[in-house]
Amino acid sequence: MAGTKRVTRNPSPYNPLPFHLLRFGQLLSAAIVSSIVTYFVHYLLHEHYKLPWTFLFLLTSSFLTILALLGSSALYHFRTLPPKYNLTNNAALTVLWILSLSFLTWNVGWTLSHRCTITTWHNETGIMVCRLYKACTAFTITGLLTTSLALLLDLQTYRKSIQLGKYNQMYEPDKKRAAFPAISVPTPQPEPYYGSQPMNGTGDLSDEKPYRVQESIEARHFGYSAPTEQTRYDPARGVY
């Protein structure tokens, strides 16, 4: 349509393969962690238990990761995702994932070091809870690793974009003249004209001086010397 404006999109500075693989790992880890923690939070609130700080950090890290991925995906597909913007997001998310994993391993470290058996957990519900804790820990580690690698990719892409954006300082007119002085080029002088055509281009030969050989022509190779009378131009007859 004539009235529709076309939105231009600059090419992305990211390498597509590692960029999308890392983002998929972040999304998968955040989705699984948030689902497991939401399940625990639901039953804790139903039993009127106080929510531990570990679950709060896990929920914050996973939900913010999903929101950051959605926002950056919109920028990536409809505009251009700035590496500096994504670098800031992944730096903050990396800190949150580190805190979440620290709290989780501190509180459920005993569970992670034991097998999920009836001897330890007494029933099927206990075994399921043990497996959910281990799955949550595994995907928390995956979320931390993928977010850290995405942070390194953002840093590398940001540095590369800065290097590509460097330019040399242009000279101001006064400074340019001082740095590069003008070189005087001599004007070429016209060569003398010895032809029979007039210089004014009018075709009138009346003002032209007759051509006359000033010196005798000597044919030294043949041993003959032509006298001046034989090489003089006769204007009346128009011949030499």
Characterize the structure shown.
With 240 residues, the chain is mainly alpha-helical. The protein is built from 7 helices and 2 strands. Strands 1-2 form a two-stranded antiparallel sheet. Strand 1 and strand 2 form a beta hairpin. Helix 1 (16-46) packs antiparallel against helix 2 (53-78) and helix 1 (16-46) packs antiparallel against helix 6. It is rod-shaped and about 140 Å long. The two termini are 85 Å apart. Residues 213-222 have low confidence and may be disordered.
Could you write a compact summary of the structure shown?
It contains 7 helices and 2 strands; from the N terminus they run αααααααββ.
Number of helices: 7
Shape: rod-shaped
Separation of termini? 85 Å
Task: Classify the secondary structure makeup into a structural class.
Answer: mainly alpha
Outline the low-pLDDT stretches.
213-222
Strand content: under 5%
Radius of gyration: 46 Å
Work out the helicity level.
Answer: 55-70%
**On the 0-100 scale, what is the average pLDDT?**
77
Order of helices and strands: HHHHHHHEE
Q: Please count the beta strands (DSSP E, at least 2 residues each).
A: 2
Strands in their spatial order, largest beta sheet: 1-2
Main sheet overview: 2 strands, antiparallel
